[in-house]
Amino acid sequence: MPINKQQVRTALTHVMHPEMGKDLVTLDMIEDLIVQDSFITFTIDLPEKNVSLETALKEKCEEAIRNFVDKDAILDINTAVNISKFRNKEDKGEFPGQGHRNKKEQERDKEEDGELLSGVKNIIAVASGKGGVGKSTVAVNLACGLARSGAKVGLLDTDIYGPSIPTMMDAHERPNITTQKQLVPLKKHGIRFLSMGLLVDPDQAMIWRGPMVTSAVKQFMEEVEWGELDYLVLDLPPGTGDIQLTLVQTVPLTGAVIVSTPQTVALDDARKGVAMFKKVNVPVLGMIENMAYFVPEDMPDKKYHIFGKHGVRKLAERMGTNFLGEVPLEQAVRESGDEGKPIVLQEGLESKSAQAFVEISNNVMQQMAIRNQQQDPTEKIDIKIKP
Ligand SMILES: Nc1ncnc2c1ncn2[C@@H]1O[C@H](COP(=O)(O)OP(=O)(O)OP(=O)(O)O)[C@@H](O)[C@H]1O
């Protein structure tokens, strides 16, 4: 007798979600079910990347189909992350909260810190040891890349001495202030963002001392209406000095990514960046190699490793850190930055760098999910700031 969809659905009601105590059909996690003769394909929708859960659910689905439908069925079981589908369910309490800052922790934060980041699930710092390696370019493209996948994303430019995000986002207007005296982030390219550069004259900021910077950043976290966010990306000032050290302890960071070019002097500083985060117990999600190679437009077969070959990849291996991807040196990256149109939003993703940023965003999501499964939330330290 030919197999029908109802048989498959009934079989899948035997597969329980390990945390929810309900089956995958009741939880509305099965999509795109196609049955043709003995071939069965479907997708298990998940609210976030979770490699071990995906593997376990696939195995259980296969077992259920072989037991209850046809032991010789040809199976093609896929998984997909569908953030928007589960957001409503999460809001209604039908699905567990995602991200390391679960509801209880978010409420605790709310009590302790007023509105400080109470709706933000994951906070990622983008750091570089050395200046000018493309940290802000990566921060903008990572934020927009995460948003591309359906996540709610915020971007905060804390690089007070050289804020470049307003240019890279092509937004320069002063943010509004609500009646509750909260700043309203600007909205562009599907993300909410704020930059010190929108509020503070960079010439003035140049003479700010460390505590003033930290105090300003703290204010940016506390007095901004960020709302509900899946990810808040922080573009840190370059370096690994006192300012950076204080900043990364003031905020309960979920994890950090380190950007470097493959050049020796940049790598030395990137190593210090990894060490800094380890020292304050912030998990390093991985390293990104920017300006990894150059391909001349008129000679697409040639590849020049201008700053050295695979330096960041090798350093990540040596330091036992993940390698999240490499971005080529491309004119289009520079141009899109200057025009305020992040390359990751390029239609058709023709350029290698746009593809690289999509891959990097996916890798960051994956590492974040692994980190949230394996480790407790990062503790923030209450630093007394004397301006
Ligand atoms: N992969 C790339 N290909 C081409 N140009 C790039 C690439 N990455 C960054 N750039 C360009 O290099 C310059 C410096 O980049 P960016 O401002 O992102 O660096 P940064 O590390 O944030 O600098 P700072 O230390 O000043 O904060 C910018 O003009 C940017 O457009």
From TrEMBL:
<dbReference type="InterPro" id="IPR002744">
    <property type="entry name" value="MIP18-like"/>
</dbReference>
<keyword id="KW-0456">Lyase</keyword>
<keyword id="KW-0378">Hydrolase</keyword>
<protein>
    <recommendedName>
        <fullName>Iron-sulfur cluster carrier protein</fullName>
    </recommendedName>
</protein>
<dbReference type="Pfam" id="PF10609">
    <property type="entry name" value="ParA"/>
</dbReference>
<dbReference type="InterPro" id="IPR033756">
    <property type="entry name" value="YlxH/NBP35"/>
</dbReference>
<keyword id="KW-0067">ATP-binding</keyword>
<keyword id="KW-0479">Metal-binding</keyword>
<keyword id="KW-0411">Iron-sulfur</keyword>
<dbReference type="Pfam" id="PF01883">
    <property type="entry name" value="FeS_assembly_P"/>
</dbReference>
<keyword id="KW-0408">Iron</keyword>
<comment type="subunit">
    <text>Homodimer.</text>
</comment>
<keyword id="KW-0547">Nucleotide-binding</keyword>
<dbReference type="InterPro" id="IPR019591">
    <property type="entry name" value="Mrp/NBP35_ATP-bd"/>
</dbReference>
<comment type="similarity">
    <text>Belongs to the Mrp/NBP35 ATP-binding proteins family.</text>
</comment>
<dbReference type="GO" id="GO:0005524">
    <property type="term" value="F:ATP binding"/>
</dbReference>
<dbReference type="GO" id="GO:0016829">
    <property type="term" value="F:lyase activity"/>
</dbReference>
<dbReference type="InterPro" id="IPR027417">
    <property type="entry name" value="P-loop_NTPase"/>
</dbReference>
<feature type="binding site">
    <location>
        <begin position="129"/>
        <end position="136"/>
    </location>
    <ligand>
        <name>ATP</name>
    </ligand>
</feature>
<dbReference type="InterPro" id="IPR034904">
    <property type="entry name" value="FSCA_dom_sf"/>
</dbReference>
<feature type="domain" description="MIP18 family-like">
    <location>
        <begin position="5"/>
        <end position="66"/>
    </location>
</feature>
<dbReference type="InterPro" id="IPR000808">
    <property type="entry name" value="Mrp-like_CS"/>
</dbReference>
<comment type="similarity">
    <text>In the C-terminal section; belongs to the Mrp/NBP35 ATP-binding proteins family.</text>
</comment>
<comment type="function">
    <text>Binds and transfers iron-sulfur (Fe-S) clusters to target apoproteins. Can hydrolyze ATP.</text>
</comment>
<dbReference type="InterPro" id="IPR044304">
    <property type="entry name" value="NUBPL-like"/>
</dbReference>
<feature type="region of interest" description="Disordered">
    <location>
        <begin position="88"/>
        <end position="114"/>
    </location>
</feature>
